[in-house]
Amino acid sequence: MPDTAHDPGLAPGLQAPLRDYLAHLGVERGLSGNTVSAYRRDLTRYARHLAAVGRSRIEDVAEADVTAYVSVLRQGSDGGTPLSASSTARALAAVRGWHRFAQAEGLAAADPSADVHAPQQLRRLPHALSVDDVARLLTAAGSGEGPVPLRDRALLELLYSTGGRISEVVGLDVDAVGWLGREEEHDGTAPSPHAVVRLLGKGSKERVVPVGSYARAALDAYLVRGRPGLAAAGRGTPALFLNTRGARLSRQSAWAVLRRAAERAGIAEPVSPHTLRHSFATHLLAGGADVRVVQELLGHASVTTTQIYTMVTPEALREVYAATHPRALG
């Protein structure tokens, strides 16, 4: 690894600790060369800032110096590129790592970056399709003959019906789908069986999610008329969704299924598997679903994560407020 901490603009009291920290990242923590290079760029810029404000030793750095550097990054006032909030947060993380290392190694008595906060990032609203666009997308997925269109329609129907992550859905085995009540005989007067699916989410946390009637019909058609033909090309696998070689469908292939369906449906805006997850949550909340129920369906650990979806239906929220608050009208 080249010694890049030698900078004529830096005093030895900054050069040596920076060189030691970069070596620590590469040797002791085993970070890749590209990652160490990224730390090097971020911290060299920071060290130059410290030199410019008269700090020649890392033990002399104060919290105000770190706070000022955050403003420098955002504004580019050091002649460097102004950074976004997310990039500034990344650069500040590198600064914090260096100061923690210096304190742990006895090079500084305290960590001046400990209480410095990264700039707040604007919360990006999730993109959701309209109900009509979802319907056109799902119809387009099933156009054509043979087992592949049946698979594609079932895949996208299940993604939208459950709000599952793409990794959760392509990871399903056949026995993860169940029909509650199917074992009973129905005479036409009893309610039809309810479909459910067991999704394995983050942290291997399993949740049982109901499957709507459209997705259930698509799954039925695929399991009866589509999957057997695809399975015949393989060596036998419990996977629910198969590729044309009879093996489990990959995440990348599932993405391709969605892209092709969006093109056929004439949807110009970008569509990803997460778009269907966003649409699932948004449409449920717009229809009056409780946010905590949606939290459980999505597999979010915190309801705060789910509440972002309420931000994309302001009209619905205003209508509910106007209809229910006793002092809303007057």
Short description:
This protein has 330 residues and is mainly alpha-helical. It has two domains: 12-104; 131-322, hpI Integrase, Chain A (Orthogonal Bundle). The chain is built from 13 helices and three strands, in the order αααααααβββαααααα.
List the helices and strands and how they pair.
Blueprint: H1 12-28, H2 33-52, H3 63-75, H4 85-104, H5 131-141, H6 147-162, H7 166-170, E1 177-180, E2 194-200, E3 206-211, H8 213-231, H9 251-265, H10 273-286, H11 291-298, H12 303-306, H13 314-324
Antiparallel strand pairs: 1-2, 2-3
Helix pairs in contact: 1-2, 2-4, 3-4, 5-6, 5-9, 6-8, 6-10
* CATH architecture descriptor name of the largest domain: Orthogonal Bundle
Rg of Cα set = 27 Å
What's the total count of β strands? Answer: 3
Structural class: mainly alpha
Spatial arrangement of strands, main beta sheet:
1-2-3
Number of domains: 2
Order of helices and strands: HHHHHHHEEEHHHHHH
Give the biggest beta sheet.
Answer: 3 strands, antiparallel
Q: Per DSSP, what share of the residues sits in E-state strands of 2 or more residues? A: 5-15%
Low-pLDDT stretches are 1-5, 180-192
What is the count of DSSP helices, taking H or I runs of 4+ residues?
Answer: 13
